[in-house]
Amino acid sequence: QVELVESGGGSVQPGGSLRLSCVASGYTYSSACIGWFRQAPGKEREWVVGIYRNGGITNYVDSVKGRFSISQDNAKNTVYLQMNSLKPEDTAMYYCAAQKQGCLLLARGEVDYWGQGTQVTVSS
Description:
It contains one helix and ten strands; from the N terminus they run E-E-E-E-E-E-E-E-H-E-E. It has one helix spanning 103-107, and strands at residues 3-7, 10-12, 18-25, 33-39, 46-52, 68-73, 78-83, 92-99, 113-114, 118-122.
C-alpha cells in the first residue's frame, strides 16, 4: 500500500520560509517521480516541480523559480520543498503526488497517488 503524507505547511508573513515534506511509504519504483502541485481557492491546480528517484529535477513553474527548491532523501523516502521569499500569491493547498512512470506524466496531471495536502498561507 502506497501512502504519501505531507507536512510542514503553516502561516507565514511575506518574505518568510517554509519547508514541506512528503514521506512516501511503500513506493520504490526506480523510474518514479514525486512532485508538488498546489491549488489556491477558486483556481485550477498547478504543477510546481518534480523529482525523479535518481535525483533528476524537472523545471519549476515560472512563478516559483529562484525561490523554491525541491530535494529528496531516498534513505528516508522523503521529498522536500523548500520555499523561500514567500508571497501572498503562494497561498494554496500543496499536494504531494507520485507517478510510477516518471515526471513527464506527473506534470500532465497523470497521478498514481496523492497525498492529503498541507495548507500554506502567506499573509501579513
